[in-house]
Amino acid sequence: MLAFSLLAMAVSEEIDTLLITYHIHITNNLPLESPANDVPTLRLHCRSKDDDLGERAMFVGDDYTWNAKVNVLRTTLFSCNAQWTKGKQRHFDAFTASRDEERCQKYHNSCMWSVRRDGIYFSNNNSTWINEYPW
Ligand SMILES: *[C@@H]1O[C@H](CO)[C@@H](O)[C@H](O)[C@H]1NC(C)=O
Ligand SMILES: *[C@@H]1O[C@H](CO)[C@@H](O)[C@H](O)[C@H]1NC(C)=O
């Protein structure tokens, strides 16, 4: 049993991050503009060099998720433009291999972003959030 655990640990450390499918989440946690939540308050446009994910209009509470893999050269980069209807606009990197391949392995291989009143917050464990991109 111990031998098996040690072997499993050794093998899991060998697994290359190139095999990992990362999940990138972006949630609209801006304040509600109307109680009915009938207006999308966030416009989000994400793209990589090869993939244009298109522009989307997000209501409060909406979560937009896509998957990404790290390329062989480890240059994978998805950047986004976020525009809040209150006139705020911010460009941010939602996934960049050099910064995220390790830190986003902690929780279901997820990079989580929460768009809020004062900026765009990151979490890699869905518990502690840091404002990495103030508006
Ligand atoms: C993070 O936690 C919230 C609240 O518990 C939950 O709704 C959400 O699905 C979680 N996100 C992920 C990516 O697991
Ligand atoms: C979440 O991550 C933060 C920052 O790395 C850490 O301080 C905190 O203890 C973690 N929380 C949990 C529940 O793992």
UniProtKB/TrEMBL annotation:
Primary subcellular site in the record, as a coarse category: secreted
Annotated InterPro entries: Self-incomp_S1 (IPR010264)
Entry annotated with the keyword Nucleotide-binding: no
Entry keyword set: Secreted, Self-incompatibility, Signal
Subcellular location: Secreted
A Pfam family it matches: Self-incomp_S1
Superkingdom of the organism of origin: Eukaryota
PANTHER family (alphabetical): PTHR31232, S-PROTEIN HOMOLOG
Family: Belongs to the plant self-incompatibility (S1) protein family.
Name of the protein described by the UniProt record: S-protein homolog
Native organism: Hibiscus sabdariffa (roselle)
